[in-house]
Amino acid sequence: MKPLLAAIALIFSGIAVAENPLSVKLVSEDKAIAAGKTFTLGIHLKPPAGYHTYWKHPGIVGLATSVEWDLPSGFTADEIQWPAPETVKMARYTAQGYRGETLLMVPITPPPAISTTSVTLTARVSWMCCGPQCHPASKVPLTITLPVAPTNAVDPAQKPLFDRFREQLPAQDDAWNAEFTREQEFIILTLKPKDPALTRDANDLGDLRFFTADGQIDSDKEQKVTRGPGQQIRMELPLSKQSKDQSNPVGVITAEKSWQKDVTSTALKLSPN
User: Key word Signal present in the record (predicted)?
Assistant: First the structure.
């Protein structure tokens, strides 16, 4: 059996029938909403110690958290905003997810007019929470009711939570230039600063890790990082045997410190060119 299939079989052979250990809540950044004004809901995930959930692309094993919305007429939901991931272990395999608490944020836009004094929104959330065993859940309904007001009103009890995880969202940084080349079973990613006066020295960034958002890179294999000359960074990224894509990979590179010398994101988002 191929490693990927073996890993999947291992996960599902360990699925538990016991109560799901993951705490999942639907929360709102605003305590009141207004017609036509976008607000943000969050799917708040809190696994117990020793357990994890998965990022939007889990890597070689796992299942990403997903949501289906049941919204009032005229309301629309944007895509999930995912905080930067970290490596998680499922048996001996390295995947992409969250070892601790996280908040998956979703902007919601109401219609230009709302005829009711309150609205009820429902998220049907599916997830996989894994640790000593894996606990799946499918389309679990989470509901929140919010009053309608002339203007949005921020909830001071929830704002710190949203601010904390908004700071963890990956961001593109025009101060760095990314170049990709292919060498047999690897993609070579070279990062060069456009303005070395702004960017942090490569040796000061700490540990670096590329997280694949499109499955081109094998999440389980070692990534070799070479720093220099100067502030240049070279990452040797092992190709996934399942990927036939020939475009530049899409993903996130995390560092221990911000990519610029001032306080900016520690997660660098790489999008298609």
Answer: yes
H/E run at residue 97: strand 93-98
143 lies in the same domain as 229: no
Q: pLDDT tens across 123-175, in order?
A: 999 999 999 999 999 999 999 999 999 999 999 999 999 999 999 999 988 88
71: containing domain: 3-166
Cβ 268 vs Cβ 173: under 8 Å? yes
* DSSP bridge partners of 269: 252
What is the spatial distance between Cα 28 and Cα 105, in angstroms, rounded to a whole number?
Answer: 9
Residue 47: name the closest of 105, 107, 124, 133 by CA.
Answer: 133
Cα 260 from Cα 176, distance rounded (Å): 9
| 8 A C-beta contact, residue 45 and residue 65 | yes
Q: Specify the residue for token string 């540990």.
A: 207
Provide the b/e sequence for 202-219 (b: ≥16 CB within 10 Å): beebeebbbbbbebbbbb
The single-letter DSSP state of residue 96 is: E
- Asked if residue 229 has a cis previous peptide bond (ω within 30° of 0), the answer is yes
Residue 258 CA, chain-centre distance (Å), reads 18
> What are the pLDDT digits (tens) for 222-235?
999 999 887 899 99
- DSSP secondary structure letters along 208-238: -EEEESSS-B-TTS--EEEE-STT-EEEEEE
CA distance 248 to 265: 22
> Which one of 142, 166, 190 terminates a domain?
166
Whether the CB-CB separation of 81 and 158 falls below 8 Å is answered with no
- For residues 150 and 187, membership in a common domain is answered with no
How far, in Å, CA of 55 to CA of 85, rounded?
Answer: 6
